[in-house]
Specification:
This protein has 200 residues and is mostly helical. It is 66% helix and 0% strand.
Length: 200
């Protein structure tokens, strides 16, 4: 099994465990309250007032303990990885789509790690997960911000929207870990790329 195949298979397992865990958590507390307008972070999947209940569920019963153990195990593995440092530029011509798939899996992998760390931080409040979320989100902005420099392209749109979603999720959940300057950098990256795709 090569490194890329191993990463994809491990990523699938981690994603499946996380998704199953989120549904179970959501169901077990009868749905998370999202009444009115919430102008503070987090607010995309749950609110600040939801966090104590989510964190308490980690030790509630066997099911929730198992879910948290799986999430934490994958998060600990994510902590052993290092954020990407260099952008993978588009190459043309790309007759067998090698560059396209390298870029696609790079973005998907980077943001899978970022999101998983963010959820681990949300469910635990533990600083190592929050700091790693911050580092991965900022690295993704630095590395992939050049996606705004070229015209929108249907062949890369899915990966780019995955980038936007993952960075936005980290920005929301780990809001308290970023400095004001870092928040500004993230906003600028998201807005530049979104503007290209909205008007393109």
């Amino acid at each position: 099994m090569d490194a890329k195949t191993g990463w994809v298979q491990r990523g699938r397992g981690a994603s499946s465990a996380l998704i199953a865990g989120l549904f179970a958590w959501h169901w077990s507390i009868g749905g998370l309250a999202q009444t009115g307008t919430n102008l503070v972070h987090p607010r995309l999947y749950f609110t600040q007032t939801d966090l104590p209940a989510l964190r308490k569920l980690r030790t509630h019963d066997h099911l929730h303990k198992t879910i948290w153990r799986n999430v934490r195990e994958s998060a600990e593995w994510c902590l052993t990885l290092f954020p990407r440092k260099e952008w993978i530029a588009p190459i043309s011509p790309d007759p067998i789509y090698e560059n396209l798939y390298d870029r696609f899996y790079a973005i998907m992998g980077d943001l899978a790690v970022t999101e998983h760390l963010a959820f681990a931080y949300a469910f635990s409040g533990e600083a190592p997960y929050g700091e790693a979320t911050r580092q991965w989100a900022l690295a993704s902005c630095r590395v992939w911000k050049r996606e705004a420099d070229s015209a929108p392209d249907g062949s890369k749109a899915y990966a780019v929207t995955r980038l936007l979603m993952g960075v936005a999720l980290a920005f929301d959940i780990a809001w308290d870990r970023f400095t004001e300057l870092e928040r500004g950098d993230i906003r600028e990256t998201l807005c530049r790329i979104l503007d290209e795709y909205y008007h393109g």
